Amino acid sequence: MKHRIVVLGAGYAGAFAAGSLARRLSPADTEITLVNAVPEFVERMRLHQLAAGRDLAFRGLADIFAGTGVRLRLARVTGVDPERRTVAMTGEDGDGELAYDTLLHTLGSSVAHHGVPGAAEHAFDVTGRSSALRLRERLAALGAGGTVLVVGEGLTGIETATELAESRPDLSVALAARGGPGAWLSPGAQRHLRRAFDRLGVAVHEHTGIEAVEPDRAIAADGRSVPAEVTVWAAGFAVSPVAAASGLEVTGTGQVVVDRTMRSVSHPDVYAAGDCVHAIGENGRPLPMSCASAGFTNMQATAAIIARLTGREVPATELKYYGNHISLGRRDAIFQTVDGDGRARSWYLGGRTAARFKAGVLKGAGWGTAHPTFGMPTRRRRLAAAPDRAGTAAGARTAA
Ligand SMILES: Cc1cc2nc3c(=O)[nH]c(=O)nc-3n(C[C@H](O)[C@H](O)[C@H](O)COP(=O)(O)OP(=O)(O)OC[C@H]3O[C@@H](n4cnc5c(N)ncnc54)[C@H](O)[C@@H]3O)c2cc1C
Questions:
Q1: What is the pLDDT along the chain (400 residues), one digit of tens a residue?
Q2: Which residues constitute the signal peptide according to the record (predicted)?
Q3: For ligand 1, atom 2, which residue shows the shortest CA distance?
């Protein structure tokens, strides 16, 4: 019987991983299935642009994986039973179950409301395509002078506020920040950010934690009322709840706990990558949820799966975080590099050059994921021997 590899989630981590596995393992003895809830590869890094009205077309997964040997299942994963090694799904064909020998969990993340009253009911977000489209529709109906409040001083909050302000100068766009927006950036980059907010007319409410959201306003911790016909919640990501509910060992936030090779510490035939993995970087700190981390972790996970199945030593992929690249509308951006401890270096790149660089990064990440087998050498390896229950071929060595 063929070794069944099931990849859950076709985002930046999962889509790339599925293609990479198909390219490097022989179809004679492996079967790769990719399960995703929606039929397109959604470029999440562009969703604030989609919400702001840009016309973006996302490539269909069926097209992406045509001819690669990857079997595509369009269904929502509702659970994993790691003891029986099955995945429960619900899709157009009803409920179903999929058996696996090796599982790669890359279900990503969505919005985290942190239990703030009214946020789930009244706030919009840009963490998924359907929610971004809902926001786009609401903004289109908002007349000149309409008030929009973006909650969150992180990367997504800054990118969303600046993109909305640039594309809809007729609206009154504000950002609520618990501390100072971009406080982790170097002093020069922080000044650059403030100039961008001023130029685009984004009003910044500093030291303003939002504690409730109502249909036409948000309430700050000190009781102040901030007018907001539209509140956009950008105050954090919550990882997919599937892993935690499945009995895999997870962190308090639901990320899968793995070893250096992205293999679950509780269930060795399960691997994880992307936003839903708790991966420790070279500096001893958890990698942030980001596209770059999704890249490094999926490359490490696929390398480990292939090595273990084909009886080779598991190579170590470098797990580093190089910095933040924040777009400030279409014509401005900040590229801030960080040191080994994740602290901002004094050097940063800002302005049009950084914006062009960021546009290239977005294009490259989208294109690379949507062409997962392009340019890689096809070296379809046969399995070394029948893998054991832990997905390791007899005699295979491990790096970590
Ligand atoms: C607006 C925005 C801007 C961003 N900008 C940047 C940036 O500039 N730089 C950066 O590094 N990062 C950025 N990020 C973060 C980055 O997008 C994520 O870190 C990255 O998408 C993580 O990749 P992933 O593959 O783990 O998850 P995802 O890309 O979220 O993919 C998960 C996949 O799983 C599918 N899925 C989820 N649940 C289920 C289920 N139950 N059943 C079936 N399928 C399911 C989803 O449909 C999706 O296809 C941004 C995020 C947002 C929202």
A1: 899 999 999 999 999 999 999 999 999 999 999 999 999 999 999 999 999 999 999 999 999 999 999 999 999 999 999 999 999 999 887 899 999 999 999 999 999 999 999 999 999 999 999 999 999 999 999 999 999 999 999 999 999 999 999 999 999 999 999 998 889 999 999 999 999 999 999 999 999 999 999 999 999 999 999 999 999 999 999 999 999 999 999 999 999 999 999 999 999 999 999 999 999 999 999 999 999 999 999 999 999 999 999 999 999 999 998 888 999 999 999 999 999 888 999 999 999 999 999 999 999 999 888 887 776 666 788 888 655 555 555 444 333 3
A2: none
A3: 45
Any atom of ligand 1 within 6 Å of the Cβ of 64: no
The closest alpha carbon to 228, from 239, 218, 236, 240, belongs to 218
Q: Do domains 3-108+240-323+362-370 and 116-233 have the same CATH topology?
A: yes
What is the CATH topology of the domain spanning 116-233? FAD/NAD(P)-binding domain (3.50.50)
Residue 79's DSSP bridge partners are 88
- Tell me which residue has its CA closest to atom 14 in ligand 1: 45
Q: Are strands 217-220 and 210-214 parallel, antiparallel or unpaired?
A: antiparallel
Evaluate: CB of 387 within 6 angstroms of ligand 1: no
The whole-angstrom separation of Cα 295 and Cα 72 is 21
Pairing of strands 3-8, 30-36: parallel
Helices and strands per DSSP (H, E), number in the chain:
10, 21
Outline where DSSP puts E strands in 328-399. 333-338, 344-350
Q: Closest Cα to atom 29, ligand 1: which residue? A: 11
Nearest residue (CA) to ligand 1, atom 7: 45
- Quick check: 284 and 295 in contact, CB under 8 A? no
Whole-number CA gyration radius for the chain: 22
Residue 73 structure tokens: 């299942």
Measured from the Cβ of residue 218, the count of other Cβ atoms closer than 10 Å reads 27
- Whether CATH 3.50.50.60 fits 3-108+240-323+362-370: yes
Cβ–ligand 1 distance for 291 under 6 Å, the answer yes
The answer, yes or no, to whether any atom of ligand 1 lies below 6 A from the CB of 156, is yes
Query: Domain limits of the chain?
Result: 3-108+240-323+362-370, 116-233
